[in-house]
Specification:
Strand order of the largest sheet: 6-7-8-3-9
CATH topology: Rossmann fold
Radius of gyration: 18 Å
Number of domains: 1
CATH class: Alpha Beta
CATH superfamily: P-loop containing nucleotide triphosphate hydrolases
CATH architecture: 3-Layer(aba) Sandwich
Order of helices and strands: EEEHEEHEHHHEHEE
Bound molecules: adenosine-5'-triphosphate, magnesium ion
Strand content: 25-35%
Number of helices: 6
Oligomer: single chain
Distance between the termini: 39 Å
């Protein structure tokens, strides 16, 4: 079986020119994920968990290493060198990312954001509003908030909106950066329920979790990051 994703020797450092110091954010990371698997990433704050997800989503350019992704549209591609145009296309159709921070478009309501994510996939406006309503209802985002701009939302409300926007696309590979941080227990369960459903449908996922109990029975592999040293 060909893996869906293979990370080989991924390293990334950041240089602070002011302090003349280089920080090795991640060094020589290797892991492989088969289709339909769930990989959990754990590690202390600052150990490089988000850097790994951002390198896969290519918010960060990896410094060294290959990130081989088996795409539906392009076949096997190396995400660390893929063209920007193809990367944007993969983000639209194949790879989803849930960050804890919402990068909301100006003057776009919560409901429109979810609808747009669906329309980008080539679905009709009618379908988009039906699915958006279903998703926001599932995550119990108060309907009073649907027509509001999300910049004023609380952390948990933003997170639930973010998750909704990513999940409606039914990505093949879903990257989750602490999707349960700042949620209460009931909302955490809603997220878990949705991730279980996605897993049954065959979605491959990589998730960062502080709360390891939350992953019980969901993760096929757990990758633990050690704290990196300043060099
Ligand atoms: N854009 C950046 N510029 C400079 N340094 C960065 C940047 N992104 C990450 N780093 C540094 O790389 C290291 C790893 O950061 P990262 O965000 O990956 O950690 P993390 O494991 O996700 O931490 P947390 O659990 O707190 O979210 C940190 O020391 C951080 O300061
Ligand atoms: Mg992080």
């Amino acid at each position: 079986m060909t893996p869906l994703l293979e990370v080989n020797g991924l390293s990334k450092s950041f240089t602070d020119h002011h302090l003349k110091q280089t920080m090795q954010a991640v060094e020589d990371i290797h892991f492989t994920i088969q289709k339909g698997e769930f990989l959990g990433i754990i590690g202390k704050s600052g150990s490089g968990k988000s850097t790994i997800l951002k390198s896969i989503y290519r918010t960060y350019f990896p410094e060294t290493g290959d990130i081989i992704y088996d795409s539906t549209k392009y076949g096997k591609v190396n995400l660390s060198t893929l063209s920007e145009r193809e990367m944007i296309d993969l983000r639209k159709h194949e790879i989803g990312y849930v960050s804890q921070f919402l990068n909301a478009l100006p003057r776009t309501t919560a409901f429109e954001l979810v609808e747009q994510s669906i329309i980008e996939m080539g679905r009709t406006a009618e379908e988009a509003s039906r699915v958006a309503a279903e998703m926001l209802t599932h995550f119990e985002l108060d309907p009073e908030l649907w027509d509001r701009y999300p910049n004023t939302f609380s952390g948990g409300q933003k997170l639930r909106l973010n998750i909704s926007c990513a999940i409606v696309k039914k990505p093949r590979l879903l990257l989750l950066d602490e999707p349960t941080a700042s949620l209460d227990d009931a909302s955490k369960l809603k997220v878990r329920e949705m991730l279980e459903r996605l897993k049954i449908e065959g979605t491959t996922m990589i998730g960062i979790f502080h709360d390891i109990e939350f992953m019980d029975g969901l993760c096929d592999q757990v990758f633990t990051l050690k704290k990196q040293l300043v060099v």
